[in-house]
Design goal:
By secondary structure, this protein is of the alpha/beta class. It has 16 helices and 19 strands. GO terms for molecular function: ATP binding.
C-alpha cells in the first residue's frame, strides 16, 4: 500500500490529521499550497503576516516565505490577499512569483491593534486539532520497542533481572514509572537510559494556534532538531523533526511551572515542560524535594496519567484540553509508605525499587567504569575497597565507583600522571570523597 493510501485512510479516521507524504524513507506533513489547506481559523495567517510586516520597512515574497515557514504558493496568495485589503503596498515586482512590498498606513494601524492582542512573530502555527491528531498518529505508527534495544540501552547499568524487565515493560507499554530507593543507586540514570531505548523521531510544530493567541512549543534548549529537513521541498516547514525529547525537572518544580507560561511583553504563551516532553520522557527527578508537597504534585498528575490529556486556562478564561503522550518517570528517595496517596500509586504503570548494590554488583560497576576509562582492574582492587566499606560500616551505593574513579583521576592529573587505581591513589580519593581519613 502506498504512503498516500495509508495516510488517506488515517485522515478518514481523523480528519484533523495533516496531509502526509513521503520524504525519502520518512512520512512527513505536506506543505499546504493554499490558505484554506493550512487549516487555521479565521485570519490567523494574515494577522501573523501583518505583525511581521510591521517590524520592517519593506519585504519581499521569498523573505516572508522563509520567516513564516510557508510554501511560496501559499505566501503569494497570502500577500495578494492583504494587498487587496489595502494593508500592504506593492513596490515593484522582480519576477512572476516575487514582489517587494511595504506596509501601508492602514496596515500599520491594523498591525498595532493585532500586537495588542498577540505579539507572536515567527514560524506559522498549526491548529491544536492538527497537533493532537499528528501526535496520536505518530504514537500509533512508532516502531515497537524490542527487548534487544532495551538491553542495549541499559547495558551501562548493573540491574537485577527483575528491574531490567520492569524498565523494558515501561518503555514498551509507554506507561509511567515510579523508581524509588535510597539515594545514589541510579534512579535518575535509569530514567535517562530508558529514554535512549525509545525508537524513532517525531514531528512537532514550532507553535500552536489557540483562540486569538499562540503557544510556542519548540524549544531549542530541550528539543534536539534533526538537520536537513528544512531543505526538502514539499515538507510543511511549520513542523520540525526532533529526537524524542527528554525533559528533566527537579527541585525547581512548582505547580505554576506545569501551566502555560504567559509572556506579557510578547503576549503569547510558552508551553510548560511536560507538554514539551510529548513524544518522549518527562522525568521528575528527586521527587519530594520540590518546593511543593508530594501530595500536591501527585494530585496534579493524576488526571494526565489517567486520560493522557491535560487542561489549561488562558488569561481570557478560555479552557484548553491538550494531549499528553509521554512516559512519566518519577525518581525519588521516598519510600512507598511516604507517598500517602494510594490512588496515585495505582495509576503509576510500574514501580521499580533500586536498592543498594550487592558487593558483587558493586565490583561489576567499578570494573566496568574503570574499563571505560582505559584501566583494567583486578579483583584485588575491588576486594580491598569493599573491605574498607565493611570496616567503615558504610552502605554501598551504585554511584560511588564512578565518583571514586573520577576523584582518582583528579589525583593523577594533579601529579601529571595518567589514571591509575593504586591503593595510595584510591585512599586519597576515598578521603576526599567521604571527608575522612582512610
Amino acid at each position: 500500500m502506498t504512503a498516500s493510501a495509508t495516510t488517506a485512510q488515517a485522515r478518514e479516521k481523523d480528519p484533523f490529521l495533516p496531509a502526509l507524504g513521503r520524504a525519502g524513507d520518512l512520512i512527513a506533513p505536506r506543505a499546504p499550497q493554499t490558505i484554506e489547506s493550512a487549516a487555521l481559523p479565521g485570519n490567523e495567517l494574515s494577522d501573523l503576516l501583518m505583525r511581521l510586516a510591521y517590524t520592517v520597512p519593506r519585504f519581499h515574497t521569498a523573505w516572508v516565505s522563509k520567516q513564516l515557514h510557508l510554501s511560496p504558493a501559499l505566501t503569494d496568495e497570502l500577500l495578494s490577499k492583504v494587498a487587496n485589503d489595502g494593508l500592504i503596498e506593492t513596490l515593484w515586482q522582480t519576477s512572476e512569483t516575487s514582489s517587494h512590498y511595504k506596509i501601508s498606513e492602514m496596515g500599520r494601524e491594523h498591525a498595532k491593534r493585532l500586537m495588542d492582542v498577540c505579539g507572536y512573530i515567527g514560524p506559522a502555527p498549526v491548529s491544536l486539532e492538527a497537533y493532537s491528531a499528528m501526535l496520536r498518529w505518530q504514537f500509533a505508527n512508532t516502531p515497537a520497542v524490542v527487548p534487544d534495544t532495551v538491553a542495549k540501552a541499559l547495558s551501562n547499568m548493573v540491574l537485577s533481572p527483575k528491574a531490567a524487565q520492569l524498565a523494558g515493560l515501561g518503555v514498551s507499554s509507554g506507561r509511567s514509572l515510579f523508581i524509588y530507593g535510597p539515594p545514589g543507586n541510579g534512579k535518575s540514570s535509569l530514567g535517562r537510559f530508558i529514554h535512549s531505548a525509545l525508537p524513532g523521531d517525531y514531528w512537532i510544530p514550532h507553535a500552536i494556534s489557540v483562540g486569538e493567541t499562540i503557544i510556542r512549543l519548540y524549544d531549542p534548549q530541550l528539543h534536539q532538531k534533526i538537520e536537513g529537513f528544512d531543505k526538502i521541498d514539499g515538507i510543511d516547514q511549520r513542523w520540525i523533526r526532533i529526537r524524542r525529547p527528554m525533559v528533566i525537572v527537579g527541585g525547581e518544580l512548582t505547580l505554576d511551572l506545569l501551566d502555560l507560561v504567559y509572556i506579557p511583553s510578547m503576549k503569547f504563551y510558552e508551553a510548560p515542560p511536560h507538554l514539551k516532553a510529548n513524544g518522549g520522557v518527562f522525568l521528575v527527578d528527586d521527587f519530594g524535594r520540590e518546593r511543593i508537597s508530594p501530595e500536591q504534585l501527585l494530585n496534579r498528575f493524576i488526571t494526565p496519567m489517567e486520560h493522557q490529556i491535560d487542561y489549561f486556562t488562558l488569561r481570557t478564561g478560555q479552557k484548553l484540553q491538550m494531549p499528553l503522550r509521554h512516559i512519566l518517570i518519577i525518581a525519588t528517595n521516598l519510600t512507598l509508605e511516604d507517598v500517602t496517596d494510594p490512588a496515585f500509586l495505582r495509576r503509576m504503570g510500574y514501580r521499580i525499587y533500586l536498592g543498594a548494590p550487592t558487593e558483587e554488583d558493586y565490583a561489576k560497576i567499578f570494573k566496568s567504569y574503570a574499563a571505560k576509562q582505559g584501566v583494567e582492574v583486578g579483583s584485588e582492587v575491588t576486594d580491598r575497597l569493599l573491605a574498607k566499606y565493611r570496616e567503615k560500616k558504610k552502605e554501598l551505593r551504585a554511584c560511588e565507583p564512578r565518583d571514586l574513579i573520577e576523584r582518582s583521576r583528579d589525583v593523577c592529573r594533579f601529579h601529571g600522571k595518567p589514571l591509575e587505581l593504586t591503593p595510595d591513589v584510591l585512599d586519597l580519593a576515598w578521603s576526599g570523597y567521604f571527608g575522612e581519613v582512610s
